[in-house]
Every structure is written in C-alpha cells, then in structure tokens.
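Re: the 329-residue chain
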Amino acid sequence: MEQIARRIAALVEASGGRAYAVGGYVRDRILGIDNKDLDVEVHGIAPQRLWEILSEVGEPLSYGSSFGIYSLKGTRIDVALPRRERATGRGHRDLAVSVDPWIGLEEAASRRDFTMNAMLEDLLTGEIIDLFGGRKDLEAGILRHVSAAHFGEDPLRALRAAQFAARFRLRLAAETAALCGSIDLSALSPERVEEELKKALLKAERPSVFFEVLRDTRQLRTWFPELADCIGIPQDPHYHPEGDVWTHTMQVLDRGAALRGDVRDPYAFLLFCLTHDLGKIVCTELRNGRIHAYGHESAGLPLIERFLRRIVREKAVREYVLNMAPLHM
C-alpha cells in the first residue's frame, strides 16, 4: 500500500504538486497502531491531472468530482484534493463543498477536526508536518480541536470526540468540551450515530468513556435518552455498592468489552450489556425500606426496543438484544 502511495506521490511531484499521507494513518503511525487504510491528500495539481495520474497507477474510482475524493480499485487507498466546506444546514451532510488544490497546507489542515488528525506525512521524504501541535497533544493525552471557526460545521464531531476519547484514552481540552456541548446533534442521521457508537464499543478498552464524555458535554440525551434516565436511579447498596443504575451499566459495559474475543457478535453483545437494565427506570421502588426493581428484565423491553430502533440498523442485532435482555437474571 505504501509503495503504491509513493508511486502516486512521485507522479504528483513530477506534475508540480505534492502528496501527503494524512489523518488517522499518520496519527496511528505515531501511536504504533497498525492502520490498513491510507488517506492521501494531493496539493498543487488540478483534478483532471490527478485522475490521469491515478489511471497510470491503477483503476481510479470517483466519489464525485465536486468532492475531489478518489480511490484506487483493489486497494485501501483514498486520494483527495484539499477542499473548502461551508455549513448550509444542521445535518452532517448539509455542506457546500468546493475543491481547491492550491489552498495550502495550513488552511487545509485547519479544516480537520482534531490536532491529532491534522498532521501530514510527506510521502516522498517521510517528514511529519505538524502545524497545530498534534503530536504534543497526543503525548499529553489531550484531544483538542483545530479550529473553533470550522469545528462546528460538522455536528458529527461532537460524537467523534467521545469516540476518540474512548479509543485512545484521551481527555478533552476544556475549550473542546465546551464546543462539543454547543453543537446541535438532532439532525444527524442514525447511520452516522451508529458508526461512532460501533467504533467506541468495538475498539475502546473502556467503551464507557464514550458515554461519560457525552454526559459531561451535555450531549447524552439527544441520542441516548434512556441511558440519561439511568442517572440517579438508586439500587440496593447490599447488591450494588457501586451506586446508581448508570454507574452499574457503565461497569457492566467495560467488563463486557473484556469478553469481546469470546463472543460471536461483540457488537450485539455489548449493546445487550449497555441496555440490559433499562427496565430499572420504570420498576425501581422502595419496599419495606429496601430498594427493588422486580420484573425489570421484562419491563425494560419497550425501552430497549425504542433505543435499538432509533440507532441500530441490523435487525438480527436488535433481535439478539431483545432476546437476551429478559434472560439476564
């Protein structure tokens, strides 16, 4: 993959441009994480010339000339030209996009989400170009936005912040957390929400961090209102010294994550861990001085189904969770 990318870069250089590895590929190389996907950003040549170069290397595929994004068939390489984006609505796709190959490295990088994703690697020299302190933030364990002016243009970034914090064990910079809390997430598509949720559940050592960040940034209730309702629901301290239903659920989720390699469908299993006690929202009561939630394993099914139908696209996953929930006792 790198050999193909370097060949593209050599042809781009011969045409007067420059090609860089960008985004998660550069970040993961610094972290020592294997990444099989390579994103390349090409500066200084026109779209038609880039298409001709890609045709010399393989069979190019276009995601739309207006977006300036291409791939090579049979590879996991995406090639893009720098672009300008302007929000035209509240949704993730409500953007006006214009390709500008001569925008310059700093302006192009300033439109990325977080400093750790704004680094570039020159494909010919191997030089890391870090214009916004991404390496320093990574080393300090901080997730920081690049540009306050551009960050809110894509509301999905508030969920990506929670997902990245969970996957890479990062803490949000205070100003980044404030920005995340100011974004309206209601117009996001369920598919994009599920994409970020799935990454957190399947890739984070402690998926609970995803939800804790959403709670801290006041973004939990928009897409996960049932989980928000678990906050403050008491449990019998004799059996649950850890505290309320929220705390219990987050602990179960993290313990479930340690078993991902032992189950057939880790995503479905962790959704079950996440939703198994939603019935306590409607069943919890005080009887004879003791806290009980009799029948919560069945009473929670309508809440669980509502949660799943809002976000989870795959019917088999929903059916698994709804089958397991009444059996969890």
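The chain has a mean pLDDT of 94.
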